[in-house]
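--- STAGE predict ---
source: upstream dedup step, 1 unique chain passed
mode: sequence only
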Amino acid sequence: MALNAYKLQGFKAGLADDAYKGVAGSFRFGYCLNIRSIADTLKCNQALKKDFGSVVTDLILSFVPASNGKLYGFGDTGRIYRKASITDPWELVYTDPNGKITGAGEYTNNNGAGNYQPYLYWATETTLKRIPLSGNWATDVQNFGTLNGDLSWHTMSIAVGVLMICDGGYLGLVDYEGNFNNRALDIIPGNRTKCLLPLDQTVVIGSTKGDKVEEGWLWTWDKQQPSWILKRMIAEKGVNCLVQGEFIIIQAGINGGVYYWDTANLLRIKQFPGGGWVNPGATANLKGLPLFGVTGSDKGGVYSYGRLNKNDPYAMNLEYIPSHGKLSGTEIGALCMYNDKPFVSWRDGSTCGVDTIDDQNKAPARYEGLVFDGGEPFVQKHFRYIKLLTKPLPAECSIEAYYRTNEQGDWKQAFMEDGSDRFDKEGNTKAVFTIETGNEEDEEKGKGETYEIALNLNPAGNDTPEIVATMTYFEAVGIF
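--- STAGE serialize ---
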């Protein structure tokens, strides 16, 4: 009997919304895959590496890439760190006696003597502080103003020409002349401002009612009106972050919901596959591609959503996992772009760190395909072989193949004809794995109604396997 072929070719559509179906080129799950290169192949992304030692000992919640060329990090126990250049290590420059720093930013304004200079601003629960960007950390830190008080978030952003600051039920601002108003805008009582996004001549504000109420709100304000202009409710436990890509992207709630909003139309467009949420400072824009640091998920890490070229699909992809290699149990505090590289702060238990791109090493990657039933989920099938077509395999790289039927049990590994558990022949461009499927205890071995394929891509240094297509060969054997 002739065998049928289940073919996979093209991977640019990223993570699917459904385990059983998706747009062409989508897959059920994967991580550290480079799906955005010019060739539509499957290969490893760059790895993340811990950036210079163990100086960072708390979770950085805000990064500020400053105009003096330095990168600053503001931690959740009050520590302030500085990285003088891309090649310099992190150093601890100041510890705030008021503890947790919940927002930070850079803004240029009048110093009170008619001179306009850049300052670093940061906020603890009830105090706004600053230092001239060229100041001395031992002598020049100033208590600039009193906040209304929010233990969780004082997110900052420059919008409508001023520095705006989330502050409980209010929005505070510092203007160009150095004036501070801690109640520039008040929103409806019971809501607490959490995140900000500049939008043309307005600011978009995301708020929460706490972790018990399924109600987050979006607001707009232009600094001129005595109150907010627009408001829109999202039925989630608060709006966590806002980021500008080709359009405004919102992450709301604790179940991974991602939304589109154009100030008129609100649409849920995606969900992070393991749920979770994004802290207000854990977003960045990588050359037009929005990045999100996902916390509270068993599939956590740095996700992207968007496209790099007009003809590509909008795709979600788990681009990076932290340098310790864990998908769960890690909180991501902040993301930023510095010297054209993403930086990621994280905490795993009592260990904290900052990661950045490792230009010299690719990351081991994982691909898990959609559930395949051949359009006949009631027909039993006998799955026999997996064939891989690849670019010439670099030295010391390898690919492992796994499979599962009827969504039962753990993944089973496929083996090559010579008994090898991986394809590792340097320079070769195709490999065939023999598979045995089904639950051996209660099904006839080698048979199942549905099928899934998974692939591990193992790089070597900066070389990666590159898969062009996969074919799984099978035959239909009946309805029993």
